[in-house]
Amino acid sequence: MLTKRQNLMETIKGGNPDRFVNQYEFMELILEAPMDLPLAPGPGMTITNKWGVTFTWPEGQIGSFPVHDDEHKVLKDITKWKEVVKAPSVYYTDEEWAAAIAHANSVDRTDKFVTAFCAPGIFEMTHHLMGIEDALMGLYEEPELMKELIDYVVEYELAYAEQVIKHIHPDALFHHDDWGSQISTLISPAMFEEFYLPAYKKVYGYWKENGVELIVHHSDSYAATFVPFMIEMGIDIWQGAMTTNNIPELIKKYGGKISFMGDIDSGVVDHPSWSQEEIAKYVEIACKRCGKLYFIPNLSQGLNISSFPGVYEATSEAIDKMSKEMF
C-alpha cells in the first residue's frame, strides 16, 4: 500500500495510485506558525489584525468577513496607500515559533507533506484593506497605484515565506486566495494576467526555489478561465474547485499540468440537516465523473473542516467506500 504522500504523487503525476487521495490527508498543516491574523474570530466575535483590518463573525452565520464601513475601512483612498498601509513585522520570537517547529519535527515526511499555510492571498489582501468595490475600481482608475500596493503585499509575503522556510522547512504550501463567485471570476482573465499573475509567479517561485515541492492553492469559486495562469505560476493542485468549473473537462484539457481538488460543493452537502446518504451520492458522482488521475475528491471548504459537525468525516468515509469500489 502506498503512503499518503506516494499516493498523492501517483495521482497528480498520472501514475498508478492505489486509492483516491482522501481530501486533505496528504497535508500536515502547521497551523501553529505565528501569523499576523488568527485564522478567524469565533462566532459572535470581532477582531482587528495587525494590518488594521477588522473582521466580525455575526451570530448565526457560518463564517467571518472584513468590516468595510467608513469607520473600519483601512484604505479609503488608493492615492494615499503609502501613508496608510503598514505591513506588520514578520519576525517572531523563538517561543512563538516553538509549537510550529515541534509539530513539523513530529511529522513523518515519507507519509505526509509538512505544509505551510498562508492566508489571505494577494487579491484578498487588497480588498480586505479597501473593500471589494474600491479594490476592483482601483484596477481601472489607478492601475499603477494598485500595482504598487500589490507589490507591497508581495514583498510582505516573501519576507514571511523566508521566516516560515527557515523555521519549519515545509515540503508544501497551502495558500488561499478566492478569485471568483460560484459562476464567474471577479476580474477578467486579461486583468488577472496583468495584475496578479506576475505577483504569484514571484511568490510561488520563491517557495519552490527554497525546498517546497508542492503548491496547493485554495479558491472555492469559479476560476476555470484562470487555469492556464495557475499552471504558469506553479500551482500543482487547485483546491476548492467547485462543480461550476466543469472539473471533468478541465482534467481532460489540463491533466498532467495541474490537478483538481474538490468537485463536492460544501454549499450543497455541508448544512444543518446533512445526511450520510446525501454526501455519499455527491461523492459518488464526483469520483465517477472525474476519475482516478489528476483529481482529489474534497469538500470545497478551505481547510480540513466543515461548517457543521460530522460533514468532513462523513465525506472522508464516503470517499474510502468509493476507493474500494473503483480501485
Structure description:
GO terms for molecular function: uroporphyrinogen decarboxylase activity. It holds the Pfam family URO-D. This is Uroporphyrinogen-III decarboxylase. It is a single chain. This protein is of the alpha/beta class and 327 residues long. The protein is globular and about 60 Å long. α4 crosses α6. The mean pLDDT is 96. It has one domain: Alpha-Beta Barrel (TIM Barrel), CATH 3.20.20. The protein has a seven-stranded parallel β-sheet with strand order 1-5-6-7-8-9-10, sandwiched between helices. The chain has a three-stranded antiparallel β-sheet with strand order 2-3-4, with no helix packed on it. β2 and β3 form a beta hairpin. The protein contains 13 helices and ten strands.
Features:
seven-stranded parallel sheet, TIM Barrel, 10 strands, three-stranded antiparallel sheet, about 325 residues, alpha/beta
